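Thread: 4'-deoxy-4'-aminopyridoxal-5'-phosphate complex, take 2
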Amino acid sequence: MGIGMELQDLNLTSKKFSHQKFRAEFPALNNENVYLDSAATSLKPQAMIDATLEYYAHNTATVKRSLHPNALQVTEIINQARQNVADWINASTSSEIIWTSGTTESINLIAQSYARPLLKAGDEIIVSELEHHSNLLPWLIVAEQTGAKVIKWSSVIDDLTSLLSERTKIVAITQMSNVTGFCPDLAAISQIVHQYNAILVVDGAQGIVHHPIDVDKLDIDFYVFSAHKLYGPTGLGVLYGKQILLETMPVWHGGGKMLKSVSFDHFIPEQHPYKFEAGTPNIAGMLGFNATFEWLKRWDFNQAQLYTEQLADYAKSQLSKLTNIQFYSVNNSSIITFNIHNIHHNDIAILLSEQNIAIRTGELCAQPLMQKLGCQGVIRLSLMPYNNKHDIDCFIIALQHAIQILD
Ligand code: PMP
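Output below.
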């Protein structure tokens, strides 16, 4: 290896954050378009794209089944991916990490495999009002199946204390709201929930992107997220569950490689995590996600977040100059939601997209929260460390133009 190569490698391993360098990693940003819809899905770094392409172009093979060299190598890398996830969230072992298709499937797995056998008529599942539909519907479905009740919680900690009782079996809360950006105090919530012997389910779909998470320290029972919001591929997600819970949970999908033995009379499932992973998994996705983690480790996560928050403050200060604006999001958040009085949110979205600005509008899969906020939809811009001041300035000019047309 030449000296130049060594220097380059040294640079790669020392964690830094330079937003110009970070931005340059995203080929989707090499054009005039302004992408402010990252809470819906993030853009993808070249490292993740290369790993996916490499698999499909040169290394296609299945995992955990065949014995030819590519299959063995790919199996090894996806084991590494599982370990990378475990390290990122501080799970005690990689066998506590289950691959799913996304946050939505992970919560449905908990509802059907953990909650359904446990719940009886009269039991209660407390769900915060902030939740995305994917952290509400699985609980409503399992409540219908078992006779349990879903109880609405404001997400204020004092209110939780008065809702908890010996009937409470599960409390479900987001790490970060996809509408308001609010991050509940998970440490305090976890402590209270466990005093009642209930379990805590945390939806990390937005939170994992912007905030460090330590499932062990926070004593979280189940933690879920989607790869596609964390610079990774679509169609891949994670369910973390405490070993002691996963051990007792029955299988929920049947198929290849989730079993030790099977006959026409009975079957014996594998241990977790495999017992929950029937069928050929999203191999390309896992390889891509492994490359995402290797790439993520090169950057200082806290500095990147600080940069994003400063950018969000700038965006909010520019937006605050507009008259008739109502904000719904908390301060210092990468998510900014608002409405302009007397203008429909979707009209703004259409006029912004005509000016090459991508944002999200509507109810953001959170109808109960919209009802609470007293609106039918909102305008949301969501920022990542690859955005810059120029993106915000383009957005503000385009928004002013849209308001002029619509007002
Ligand atoms: N929870 C939150 C807070 C989200 O923002 C989202 C995605 N919008 C989800 C859950 C669902 O994620 P997915 O569609 O990737 O399963």
